[in-house]
Amino acid sequence: MGEGVYELELRDVDSWDPVEIEYLYRAAGWWKEEYDSRELPGLIRSSFVFIVALDKKTGKAIGMGRAISDGISDAYLQDLVVLPGFRSLGIGTRIVKMLVESCIARGITWIALIAEPGTEHFYLPNGFSPMTGYVPMRYTGMD
Question: Is residue 138 a part of any domain in this protein?
Answer without folding.
Answer: no
